[in-house]
Specification:
Blueprint: H1 2-5, H2 10-33, H3 35-42, H4 46-53, H5 55-72, H6 77-94, H7 101-115, H8 119-127, H9 132-143, H10 145-164, H11 166-187, H12 207-215, H13 218-247, H14 253-283, H15 289-310, H16 314-328, H17 331-342, H18 348-382, H19 386-392, H20 395-427
Helix pairs in contact: 2-6, 2-9, 2-10, 2-11, 2-13, 4-5, 4-18, 5-7, 5-18, 6-7, 6-8, 6-11, 8-18, 9-14, 9-17, 10-11, 10-14, 12-18, 13-16, 13-17, 13-18, 13-20, 14-15, 14-16, 15-16, 15-17, 15-20, 17-18, 18-19
Length: about 425
C-alpha cells in the first residue's frame, strides 16, 4: 500500500533528484572557483564578485521560487523540475559569453530563475515517496547533491580553466544538467500527493494562507531563521573558500580542482549522511532533534573554522575548514524535514520555497556580499589578507545559528506539551 503512494522507483528517483541538485550546486560553485580569473579578466571588485555569487542570484532565486512552488503544489512537479534544470544549465553556459559585469549579472539572474524551480518540487516529491520516519534520511541523501555539486564544480572548473580558460569552464559545467533533465523527465513518474499522510485534509489553500501559516507558526518560522543564519555562514565560506585559498594561501587552480573537491565531497557528504541518520534516530523519541543536532553541530564547527583561518598554509587550512563545513552541513536537511513534516501535502512545495526564501535572502543574498564588502574595506590595510578579515565576520552568524536553534527547541517542546494537554482535555 505504501508503495502505491510513491513513484514505482522511489530510490532511483531520489538518486536522479540528488544528481540534479548536484548540477544545481555545480553551476553555483563554478563562479566561486573562477572568481579570481573572472575578477582580473572583467576588472571586478570583491563587492561585485559577492553580488554575483550572492544577492543578484539569491534575489531572483528566492522570490521567484515561491510562485513556482505554489504552482508545483497544483501541477506536475516532474515537468517543473525538468524545465527548471534545463533553464539553469543553459544560463550557466551563457555565463561564459559575458564580457562585463552587466552581462554576467544577467546570466546569473537566468541561473537564479531556473534554480528557483529546483528544490521546492524536489522536497515535495521526496515527501510523497518516503514516509515521515524515513524522510530526514531521504532529504539528507538528497542534500548530498550539495557536496557532490560543489566537489565536481571545483574539479571541473579548476582543471578545465587551467587548460582552456574560465569561459570554456562555464560551458562545460552547464552541459550535465541538460542530460539529467532529459533522464528525469523520461524515467520518473509523478507520485500520488499525500499518500503517506493520515488524517489531513487535502485542501488547496491560497498562497497568502500558506505564507501566514509558515511565518505565523513560531515552531516553523524560528527554525527557518536559524537555518538562514547557518546558511549565511556556510554559503559564504563556500563562496569565498577557493578565492581565499588562492589569494591568501597561494593555492593553484589545478590544486583547487583536486584537493578542494575531495575535501568537499568527503567532509560534507559524510556530514549530511551522519546528521540525517542521527536526526531520524533521535526524532523518534524527541522532535527537538531537528534543531538540537544543528545547534550542537555549529557550536562544534566554530573552533575548527577559526583554527583554519589562523593557519598559514593551505595544507592545514583546507582540512580544518573542511571539517567545520562537514560538521555543520546537515542544517538544511534538518530544517527541510521539519517543515515538510509540519505541513500538509498540498503546501509542501510552497513551504519548501518559503523556507528557501528566508534562507537564501538572508544567507546567500547577504553573506557573500557581506564578506566581499569587508574585504574591500580592509584591503588598504591588510592587502591580500583582507579576505581573512571578511571571513572572520561570519563567526557571529554561526553563533546566531546555535542560539536560534536552541530557541526553536524550546518552542517545539512548548508546542508538544500544549498538544498533549489539549489531547487529555478532549479525552476527558
Amino acid at each position: 500500500m505504501q508503495q502505491a503512494a510513491g513513484t514505482n522507483r522511489p530510490r532511483a528517483a531520489l538518486i536522479l533528484m540528488t544528481l540534479i541538485y548536484g548540477a544545481n550546486f555545480m553551476d553555483r560553485q563554478v563562479l566561486s572557483v573562477l572568481a579570481e580569473p573572472i575578477k582580473h579578466d572583467l576588472l571586478l571588485s570583491d563587492t561585485q564578485i559577492g553580488l554575483l555569487g550572492g544577492f543578484v542570484f539569491a534575489l531572483f532565486y528566492s522570490v521567484f521560487g515561491v510562485p513556482v512552488a505554489y504552482l508545483a503544489d497544483r501541477a506536475s512537479r516532474v515537468r517543473i523540475l525538468t524545465a527548471a534544470c534545463t533553464v539553469w544549465s543553459v544560463c550557466c553556459a551563457a555565463c561564459g559569453l559575458a564580457t562585463n559585469f552587466a552581462h554576467l549579472a544577467m546570466a546569473r539572474i537566468g541561473v537564479g530563475l531556473g534554480e528557483a524551480g529546483g528544490v521546492p518540487p524536489s522536497y515535495s516529491l521526496i515527501s510523497d515517496m518516503f514516509p515521515a520516519e524515513r524522510r530526514t534520511r531521504a532529504l539528507a541523501i538528497f542534500s548530498l547533491g550539495i557536496p557532490i555539486g560543489l566537489g565536481l564544480g571545483s574539479a571541473l572548473a579548476g582543471w578545465s580553466s587551467s587548460i582552456l580558460g574560465w569561459r570554456a569552464s562555464m560551458l562545460i559545467v552547464g552541459l550535465p544538467g541538460l542530460v539529467l533533465a532529459a533522464a528525469f523527465f523520461l524515467l520518473v513518474k509523478e507520485p500520488v500527493r499525500g499518500g503517506f499522510d493520515t488524517g489531513r485534509a487535502a485542501d488547496r489553500p491560497s498562497l497568502w494562507s500558506c505564507v501566514k501559516t509558515f511565518y505565523g507558526t513560531p515552531r516553523i518560522a524560528v527554525p527557518a531563521l536559524a537555518c538562514a543564519f547557518g546558511a549565511f555562514a556556510n554559503l559564504s565560506i563556500m563562496g569565498w573558500f577557493s578565492a581565499y585559498l588562492i589569494r591568501v594561501l597561494g593555492m593553484r587552480l589545478d590544486q583547487i580542482g583536486t584537493y578542494l573537491s575531495i575535501t568537499i565531497v568527503i567532509g560534507m557528504g559524510l556530514g549530511n549522511l551522519a546528521s540525517g541518520w542521527l536526526i531520524d534516530r533521535l526524532a523518534k523519541r524527541d522532535p527537538r532533534a531537528y534543531v538540537l543536532v544543528p545547534a550542537g553541530a555549529f557550536a562544534l564547527a566554530i573552533p575548527f573554522f577559526i583554527a583554519g583561518l589562523e593557519a598559514q598554509h593551505w595544507q592545514t587550512a583546507l582540512p580544518l575548514i573542511g571539517i567545520a563545513l562537514g560538521i555543520s552541513q546537515g542544517y538544511l536537511a534538518a530544517a527541510a524535514a521539519l517543515v515538510q513534516n509540519e505541513l500538509p501535502s498540498t503546501q509542501r512545495s510552497t513551504g519548501g520555497a518559503l523556507l528557501l526564501l528566508v534562507v537564501n535572502l538572508i544567507g546567500l543574498g547577504g553573506g557573500p556580499v557581506f564578506v566581499g564588502m569587508i574585504s574591500d574595506w580592509a584591503a588598504p590595510v591588510y592587502g591580500t589578507g583582507a579576505l581573512r578579515i571578511g571571513l572572520y565576520g561570519l563567526v557571529p552568524f554561526m553563533v546566531l545559528a546555535v542560539v536560534f536553534n536552541l530557541i526553536s527547541a524550546r518552542l517545539i517542546r512548548r508546542s508538544k506539551s500544549r498538544s498533549r494537554t489539549e489531547a487529555v482535555a478532549v479525552a476527558s
